[in-house]
Amino acid sequence: GCAAAPEPEMNLKTLTSQSPSPSASPPTSSSGQCSQECSSEFGKCAGSKTYDLCRQELDAGTGPLGSLCTKGCQDTSAMAALRSSPSPSASPSPVPNASPTPSPSSSSPSPAPTSSSTSTTQVTAGFQSNARGSTQNLEAICNIYASRGNCQVLLDVPDQCAGSTTDCAAVFCFHGSGGNADPWKNSVGAQLTSRKVIGIYPQGAPKTKQGDTPGWNTGDVSVHDDKEFILAIVRVLEAKGWTGRRYAFGRSNGGAMSQELAVNSMMGFSGIVTWVTQLLKSPNQAGPKPYDYTHPQTGSCTSPIAYLSLAGTADTVIPYDGGAVGFTGGTLMTNSESNQLWADTSKCTAGPSTSSFSWSGGGKTGSGELHTWTCPSTTPVRHYKVTDGGHNGVDQINNKGAWAVMLDFVAEVETALNTASAPRVPALPSGCAAAPEPEMNLKTLTSQSPSPSASPPTSSSGQCSQECSSEFGKCAGSKTYDLCRQELDA
Predict the structure, then answer these.
(1) Cis peptide before 290 (omega within 30 of 0)
(2) Is the pLDDT at 85 greater than 80, yes or no?
(3) Are 397 and 360 contacting, i.e. CB atoms less than 8 angstroms apart?
(4) pLDDT tens, 430-476?
(5) Which helix (H) or strand (E) holds 274?
(6) For strand 306-312 and strand 213-215, is the pairing parallel, antiparallel, or unpaired?
(7) Which terminus of the chain is more exposed, N or C, with fewer CB under 10 A?
(8) Is the Cβ–Cβ distance between 143 and 221 less than 8 Å?
(9) DSSP string, 403-458
(10) In angstroms, rounded to a whole number, what is the distance separating the alpha carbons of residues 454 and 295?
């Protein structure tokens, strides 16, 4: 009484092949077509990048595709179907009234990314909010910077910063060496409920000269140009309608990146907060040019900047009193030297004065000294000296969450800059020029007014979400478009 199941409608086509030979690496069919393993991996790639970028990676023999595919192998039918499919960053269907928007002010420094494609990358205008403790993927940027391998930029938007445009401050948060971007949503992100601040959490690329540990290229430890990548993120945000100022938070290796962003003022940052990393004393320059100065000096084009630092006197990774530290690529200043150089650069007239504070973190409690210089209100300089504190910073300062203290500092600076009608990027010293606009070929698409995020996520135009588009690409790597569409609709 039981019947066999009907044949599946899978649209399979059997190709005649020669007798199989022992497996080789990478696998390929004898007809010259890409193997099934390659086709499946290509589908995953196309879930987050364009067909062209994935094909370039395959043909160059780089990344995951390079290890699974034979260079120049022919597309399978599943791969060919992705050639005409919209890229994940593009709209799956035409968007009404889609039109390019004028490029933002040229005062924003942004060099041309070396990995950019000649094809147009589409960016949807506006910002949707997300719940605290969650994030969004910033669109487009990783299509352009696929060569970073583990490219990811998380976007954290509170309700008060949602809209077709926003002038909220953007805080770029840089993790330490070996870390990842995700935890920022629970530290900084948890504090954004009542603040006009957008969180930007980039993932560090492998430090190719230090065992591929993820982190930031400070001191020439990688082939990746992280400052170019950061400026490209700025360009994408501007294309979406962001007009605010930019700040940097960084821990350890991320603090070193924040220091370099402040030194090279063409990067356009108005303030930084560093945890347990001071300025390098030597070398004077390191890493990709032209934004390669390691401390304020002749030629660095360093502008006055708001500066807040925190460091522990018992830190054994980044010594409080500086010195030669191999993995930094040079010799660190003492914290006293580093802080005073920033005070001098930021036109402070006296200080530091000293007051005490209490701290707790890592199961320890203690006290410390807050050093405060007399500076313009737009460029305050302060330092938390955590007596007996280690490398991981603190959880609380005077019984207040440490990240809330750091964000209060940003709010204070924003108020002063707005009162002074200051520009969104610092004025550069005489003889210094802003960096050119990046050649990123962005096209901004008009969207409806963003609404707070819901589950399951969807774009405000009713189109499939970025998460859905990425998973669809993975599905299409092993099935046909029609079968994946049937699964989605069911």
Answers:
(1) yes
(2) no
(3) no
(4) 988 876 666 677 777 764 334 444 344 444 457 888 778 778 777 76
(5) strand 269-275
(6) unpaired
(7) N
(8) no
(9) HHHHHHHHHHHHHHHHHTT--SSPPPPTT--PPPPP---EEEEP-PPP----SS-B
(10) 45
